[in-house]
């Protein structure tokens, strides 16, 4: 339990030394200083992840503040099935992706200039040539999930998948390298794909 009063200093020793579970219990009980200590511990990590997704420092700061506000207003719904870090990181990622969706759906805008002849000219803003950060993030997440699913396959199936897909060699060559027939390789590959599909659907 957290003992003592923080008064105006949310970084008082009793809060700095408290474990996360005690801070969460106190925060859910209405102790704002306990919540501020949790924010102090996790904000740098949250801001790095948010900035990596939104690619804009000002937007990252806005998303961070919104994340902390949402977390505080939803503390009653927090369940100890995951850590506070995982819970608030999920909020941060969702807020970041929401911002990206708003950007993507925002209509193209422009600004006007007046020429020396007094004619109005609209200049459209240039579109961002960089890949969509949301798509990149989603692609990386899928890639990580797939890599994990492959690593959990039985050794004989994992080896075939790695050689055939990751090394991009012909199935007949993969079968030859493993000392099995092409028919056996096809059967293993089919079983591996079914296992991967189930694993990805349940992750």
Q: Which properties best describe this structure?
A:
mainly alpha; disordered N terminus
Description:
The chain has 203 residues and is mainly α. The chain has helices at residues 13-16, 20-28, 32-54, 57-73, 84-105, 133-151, 155-166, 171-178, 182-202; strands at 110-114, 120-124. A two-stranded antiparallel ribbon has the order 1-2.
Short description:
This protein has 203 residues and is mainly α.
Number of helices: 9
Please estimate the helix content.
55-70%
- What structural class results from the helix and strand content? mainly alpha
Spatial extent as radius of gyration: 26 Å
Beta-strand share of residues: under 5%
Strand order of the largest sheet: 1-2
Largest sheet: 2 strands, antiparallel
Poorly predicted tracts of residues: 1-10, 108-127
Average pLDDT confidence is: 76
Number of strands: 2
| Principal-axes shape call | elongated
H/E series, N to C?
Answer: HHHHHEEHHHH
Distance between the termini: 36 Å
């Amino acid at each position: 339990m957290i003992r003592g009063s923080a008064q105006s200093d949310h970084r008082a020793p009793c809060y700095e030394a408290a474990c996360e579970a005690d801070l969460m219990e106190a925060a859910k009980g209405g102790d704002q200083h306990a919540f501020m200590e949790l924010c102090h511990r996790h904000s740098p990590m949250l801001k790095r992840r948010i900035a990596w997704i939104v690619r804009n420092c000002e937007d990252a700061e806005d998303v961070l503040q919104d994340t902390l506000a949402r977390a505080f207003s939803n503390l009653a719904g927090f369940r100890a099935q995951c850590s506070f870090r995982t819970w608030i990181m999920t909020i941060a990622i969702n807020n970041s992706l929401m911002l990206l969706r708003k950007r993507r759906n925002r209509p193209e805008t422009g600004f006007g200039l007046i020429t020396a002849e007094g004619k109005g000219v609209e200049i459209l803003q240039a579109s961002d040539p960089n890949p969509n950060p949301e798509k990149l993030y989603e692609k990386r997440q899928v890639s990580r999930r797939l890599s994990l699913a492959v690593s959990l396959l039985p050794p004989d199936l994992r080896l075939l998948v790695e050689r055939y897909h990751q090394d991009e060699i012909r199935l007949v060559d993969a079968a030859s390298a493993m000392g099995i027939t092409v028919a056996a390789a096809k059967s293993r590959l089919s079983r591996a794909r079914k296992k991967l599909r189930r694993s990805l659907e349940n992750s």
